[in-house]
Amino acid sequence: MKRNRIHSIDIMRGLTLFLMLFVNDLYIPGVPKWMVHTAAQEDGMGLADWVFPGFLFMVGMSIPFAFMAREKKGEHTRQLLQHILIRTISLLLIGVFMVNVGSYNAELTGIHKYIWAIFVYICFFLIWNNYPSTSSRTLIFKLLKFLGIIGLAIMAFLYRSGTAENPGWMTTSWWGILGLIGWGYLVSSLIYFWLRDNLLYIALAWIFFVLINMLSQNNLLDFLSPIKPIFGIILEGNVPSIVLAGLFIGITLKQYNSDFKTLFSIILPIGILCIILGFVFRNWFIISKILGTPSWAMLCNGISILVFSLLYYLIDIKKWQRWSNVFIPAGQNSLTTYLAPNVLYYLIWYFGWNILFYKQNDMAWLAVSGSLAWAFAMVGFAALLAKLGIRLKL
């Protein structure tokens, strides 16, 4: 029997985003080491080191199904390419604004750092909100989007970093989390656009970027340094390889969704193989998220494949879904869920509200439970925004 919507995709995307909110909120000095990021030169990984690649993996998994949905709507080559490019540029742009908050100089700009950031986020929501396509208020929606674009341009114009003696402007830096997603999405979407459901060629593309990652780690691609400020994420190979791993599993799921025994006979060995390769690669590359090593990427891919397999079995085969419904809002409104909490952070910090009292190192249980409560609250906040018609979509 052919299955319809695959709920475990939404659930796992929501779960990884929930965990991302949780680990990002943790007060690092006060919580167990296994929950947070491992230092760059330290060989190992904690929960926080898997969360983001887990989300990247789900970005890749979703690509074949997103293409299929758009093609069912009648979109063809030009529309698909246009969507890929607009989505990529949007992710890169949002990522750049987010990462530049850290180096913002309020004295040079003339606006309080948190106020500037809040205005930027409001512009994000005005520009990328999913307004109703059929409504008598279409003109108002277009005006709101236009105001967001003008507002973002003004915030960029006003922005200053550095010092009075050596002022600076916005830079791409490391592109931010959303920027990394954007580059990984661009590479994988274009590869899928070209190769479609050919598993062999997709596997070769995945292997190619794993090799690129290895070459980059050994400084054998330094001759490409002039273009690294823009295309560095692609040339490092790490992020694209993770998204392509998800794409490979997504295509496999698409082809064998009606035969879960065959599906598991393919993806479970691949998941185990990825973990084995991660430890094999460890002979030459330490396990490090910060450095983006191939050993870390392979371990994360293996974990993601096995976790997804478990969720698919429980949710889509056994139909034990009720326990996981709490993660659906985050899975279906991922960008809103990720961005909205930052607005609350800036408001809390600006007004000095004592809401984040649990961030302390005296009681680790309070720091952890407080961050868990925050993550659940933010998933609920995103769900509330969606009911109010505030739902970002790229």
Keywords, please?
mainly alpha, two-stranded antiparallel ribbon, single chain, 1% strand, 15 helices, 394 residues, 2 strands, 69% helix
Describe it for me?
The chain is built from 15 helices and 2 strands. Strand 1 and strand 2 form a beta hairpin. It is 69% helix and 1% strand. It has 394 residues and is mainly α. It has one domain (7-387). It has helices at 7-25, 47-72, 77-100, 106-109, 113-128, 138-158, 176-195, 199-217, 228-236, 238-256, 260-281, 294-317, 328-332, 334-351, 364-387, and strands at residues 161-162, 167-168.
How do the strands line up in the largest sheet? 1-2
Round the mean pLDDT to the nearest integer and report it: 94
Number of strands: 2
Order of helices and strands: HHHHHHEEHHHHHHHHH
Percent helix, as a range, is 55-70%
Cα shape: globular
Summarize the model shown:
The chain has 394 residues and is mostly helical. The chain has helices at residues 7-25, 47-72, 77-100, 106-109, 113-128, 138-158, 176-195, 199-217, 228-236, 238-256, 260-281, 294-317, 328-332, 334-351, 364-387; strands spanning 161-162, 167-168.
Task: Give the helix/strand layout.
Blueprint: H1 7-25, H2 47-72, H3 77-100, H4 106-109, H5 113-128, H6 138-158, E1 161-162, E2 167-168, H7 176-195, H8 199-217, H9 228-236, H10 238-256, H11 260-281, H12 294-317, H13 328-332, H14 334-351, H15 364-387
Antiparallel strand pairs: 1-2
